Amino acid sequence: MTISLASWSVSAAPSQAQLQFFDQLKALCGKAFAGKTTLDNQPSAAFSGDMVMHVRDCSDTQIQVPFVVGENRSRTWIITKTDTGLKLQHQHKHEDGTDDQSTLYGGHTSTAGWAEAQSFPADDYSKDLFIKTKTPQSVGNTWHMYLYPNESFSYRLTREGREFRVDFDLSKAVALPKANWGAGK
After folding, report:
1. Record's superkingdom (predicted)?
2. Nearest CA to 155 among 56, 59, 75, 44?
3. What are the φ/ψ torsions at residue 12 (nearest 5 degrees)?
4. What is the count of structural domains for the chain?
5. CATH no. for residue 120?
6. Residues with Cβ < 8 Å from 171, sequence gap 6 or more?
7. 3 within domain boundaries
8. Is residue 1 classed exposed, middle or buried when 0-12, 13-18 and 19+ CB atoms within 10 A define those classes?
9. Which domain holds residue 46?
10. What distances in angstroms separate CA 23 from CA 20, 48, 76, 105, 132, one per listed residue?
11. What does the pLDDT average to over 115-137?
């Protein structure tokens, strides 16, 4: 039996749905939106307080979205176009602007997704970081983003035994928050 390698194909470019998702998020650049935790099966003080996402620092290949919780301006979501899809990274900074030990973890799309929804299973860098930082339960993380223009944006984390979701109201922009720690602007 002969198997033709021509029948095996790997996407050499982001899917149309991934590009649409990216462009819809980029269209929000310069705006900020209020959010709230809508699901958290392991509540944490780290996610209590007013929440704001600020779509900021957008280019044709990368979008940075600071995620502010109360006075904590340590978190930024970074969505990057790659040769094969979209990559999500979580940048964490200390108040003095230096990198947290747990920074730039995330994942890469493994399916085409939809223009309104993309999922990012943890990548190898993240899994290694989670083991190193003694949070092995996070090895199975998948992050999801849902974007319905003029309606809502949702950020969701799932793994065995854990689910967390924050929803943002895109129908009404809010005042821009201070720059995130280490942003320098």
Report:
1. Bacteria
2. 75
3. -100, 5
4. 1
5. 2.40.128
6. 150, 151
7. no
8. exposed
9. 13-173
10. 5, 30, 18, 23, 35
11. 98
Res. 13: pLDDT tops 80: yes
Q: What is the DSSP letter of 111?
A: S
- The structure tokens 């973890």 sit at 105
Residue at 72 is within a domain = yes
Greatest alpha-carbon span in the chain: 65
Residue type, position 8, single letter: W
Which one, of 98, 102, 121, lies nearest residue 110 by Cα?
121
- Helices and strands in the chain, H and E counts: 2, 11
- pLDDT at 183 (0 to 100): 86
pTM: 0.91
State the pLDDT at residue 11: 52
pLDDT tens string 42-59: 988 888 889 999 999 999
Residue 179 lies in a domain: no
Spell out the residues 6+ positions from residue 137 whose beta carbon is closer than 8 angstroms to its own.
Answer: 130, 159, 161, 162
Helix locations, the chain, DSSP H: 16-26, 124-132
Q: Is it the case that residue 143 has pLDDT exceeding 60?
A: yes
Of 157, 154, 135, whose CA–CA distance to 145 is shortest?
Answer: 154
Tokens of residue 22, six digits:
């990216």
